[in-house]
Design goal:
mainly beta
Length: 106
């Protein structure tokens, strides 16, 4: 058992911030922080992702749809699918699960 201290907590590091809290052979977990009014400039990843919104509000845009998101929402984004958070109206913190572990490319 391992407690992931600080996972899902917003960190104000300009312009955006990703901090990895756990890495195993099969998955990795981290926190992605985007400040209110910020720009999400991420590219598609080579891993499946699950996002859990811990704080903030935004819109996620993918080729398959657009959804407003807020605390408690859980999102699945398959590997290689383009996605971006827009209209970030409150500081956004996302707990991110990658499987397989995040490769750092994308």
């Amino acid at each position: 058992m391992q407690k992931l201290a600080g996972a899902g907590v917003f960190e104000r590091v300009a312009p955006n911030h990703f901090a990895e809290q756990l890495r195993t052979e099969s998955l990795s977990v981290g926190t992605y922080s985007i400040p209110a009014g910020g720009i999400d400039d991420q590219a598609p990843h080579h891993e499946d992702e699950i996002y859990v919104v811990t704080t903030g509000r935004a819109t996620i845009v993918t080729p398959t749809g657009t959804e407003q998101v807020g605390p408690g929402d859980v999102l699945f984004v398959p590997a290689e699918e383009a996605h971006r958070f827009t209209d970030i109206t409150e500081d956004l913190a996302l707990l991110v699960f990658f499987a397989p572990p995040y490769s750092g490319r994308g």
